[in-house]
Specification:
By secondary structure, this protein is an alpha+beta fold. It has 16 helices and 14 strands. It has three domains: 92 residues, Rossmann fold (3-Layer(aba) Sandwich); 78 residues, 2-Layer Sandwich (Dna Ligase, domain 1), CATH 3.30.1490; 214 residues, no CATH class. It binds adenosine-5'-diphosphate (ADP) and magnesium ion. Magnesium ion binds next to loops.
């Protein structure tokens, strides 16, 4: 665990003395000294181009002004941005929890985080090893093994290669000619060709026929590609954002402009569907060790197909989340504070056997998913988390109600908009996103807080 800042306050000194007036010296029979230590938990933010959410997270944490009793001590919380600099592998770590947004592409920070987990017991989300090893393709395999309805998927060797000494002998001996058209036919059209380790829609192609398939493969270059059966026609596309045990479902429209893709709809799924998707999301996230992830699912003929769930650094920007943005800030605060307060141990290794044991039982799909989710909720200590929130974070919505109406919140939105939009659109889009946050305040805030401005 990180070195916490401890300021000890002498709270009570009780001296029970027995003084013999005539006999000197006066002596003390019993001396009870009670200390209440104020322990400060430090939450580090390991950031890249993030602008809006850290400002809101930091300001909300400050306004929460937490003093959480822990035994005889009292826990306080502060946040600090993690800087990038040379580090001694044996230096200590001053953070209790780190929320990381860099691991997947900035390797200096990734290596610092791995060192801090191993040597200092740091709790970080997300686990950096899982991001290094769990490509999208591997996650497809794993969830097929658990019996989730991942669409049929193939992997094809790349069209071209970086030259190397061993390349020609290897390909000459072992590479087999294959016919793309046959694979296309077996999957059916439309299908998707997309990088096996992809993200951010880079290199993703919807393919409607064999001619397009061949042309797309020609253009795929050195990337290793998956071909996946298209889930068409689907009547719902939902993004399930998971943060610890908390899950939010967002109706998603990929054809809309970026600022409108996350829909504001409510009640677009039945209760049963929401439960199923929550079980699915928690199963996926705990299986791969992800505290924070987004699972994309498509519904066709009443079946929910997971198509992209290796997103362990999901979009957190107000410019895409807008209405849902306060939920993310609150979920992030709750989970990180809980992890810091309870010294939640970092799970460094996967432990897949309990899930596989359930998979072997051949249960009906819904029952099986429920059984996986029971493991997930236990691993996430859902009960402990909910108890903690009820006891120590009951005021969080009320604080959020005030904060998200403040000029600081508006400025945070504006800063992000300024970074992304042309100058002439800054006012318009700041108002649009801030307005949607106000809608969140009126629609989702505590009933007790309703009406306050
Ligand atoms: N199997 C599929 N069926 C239907 N649509 C798909 C499928 N795979 C991908 N898509 C569409 O392509 C988009 C990008 O693909 P995705 O796998 O999510 O890639 P990325 O990891 O780059 O986000 C998805 O959001 C969805 O709209
Ligand atoms: Mg995606």
């Amino acid at each position: 665990m990180g070195t916490s800042l401890i300021s000890s306050r002498l709270l009570a000194v009780s001296i029970v003395g027995s003084q013999e007036i005539r006999n000197v010296p006066i002596f003390t029979e019993l001396c009870i000294i009670e200390f209440m230590a104020e322990i400060t938990k430090t939450i580090g933010l390991s950031l890249g181009a993030d602008i809006c959410w850290p400002i809101c997270y930091e300001e909300m944490l400050r306004r929460l002004d937490l003093a959480v009793p822990s035994g005889r001590d009292q826990l306080r919380f502060r946040t600090e941005r993690v800087t990038i600099e040379p580090f001694d592998l044996r230096q200590t770590c001053r953070y209790d929890v780190v929320i990381d947004r860099l691991t997947h592409w900035y390797h200096t920070s990734r290596e610092w985080i791995k060192k801090a987990i191993i040597l200092d017991g740091l709790y970080v989300f997300n686990n950096p090893w899982t991001l290094q090893s769990m490509e999208k393709q591997t996650t497809y395999c794993a969830m097929m093994k658990l019996g989730l309805p991942v669409p049929d998927t193939w992997l094809v060797p790349p069209k071209s290669y970086e030259p190397s000494d061993d390349l020609q002998p290897t390909l000459r001996q072992y590479a087999r000619h294959f016919d793309l058209g046959t694979i296309g036919k077996s999957l059916g059209y439309p299908l998707f060709m997309k990088p096996y380790d992809g993200g951010g829609w880079v290199g993703v192609n919807k393919i409607d026929d064999e001619t397009a398939l061949r042309a797309t493969y020609e253009e795929s270059g050195k990337r290793v590609m998956n071909m996946q059966a298209g889930v068409f026609p689907h009547d719902r596309f939902v993004r399930c954002l998971g943060l610890g045990p908390q899950v939010r479902f967002i109706n998603y429209d990929p054809s809309a402009p970026l600022h409108d893709r996350y829909r504001l709809d409510k009640d677009f799924m039945s209760k049963d569907e929401a439960e199923l998707l929550e079980d699915m999301t928690l199963t996926i996230n705990t299986f791969f060790g992800w505290d924070f992830n987004s699972c994309e699912v498509l519904r066709k003929d009443g079946v929910w197909y997971p198509i992209d769930f290796a997103n362990a650094c999901p979009d957190s920007q107000v410019t895409s989340l807008h209405y849902h943005f306060p939920w993310l800030i609150l979920a992030n605060l709750r989970w990180s504070i809980f992890c810091a307060a309870t010294d939640r141990p970092m799970r460094m290794n996967y432990d897949w056997e309990p899930y596989f044991e359930i998979a072997r039982r051949d249960l009906p799909y819904r029952e099986r998913l429920r059984a996986y989710a029971a493991i997930a909720r236990k691993r996430l200590d859902t009960e402990g988390f909910e108890g903690f929130c009820a006891k120590h974070l009951a005021h969080i919505e009320e604080v959020a109600m005030e904060f998200f109406a403040s000029t600081e919140a508006r400025e945070a939105v504006r800063k992000k908009v300024t970074a992304l939009f042309p100058a002439r659109e800054i006012d318009e889009f700041t108002e649009l996103f801030f307005g949607r946050i106000q809608r969140w305040r009126t629609e989702e805030a505590l009933p007790a807080s309703r009406g306050k401005s």
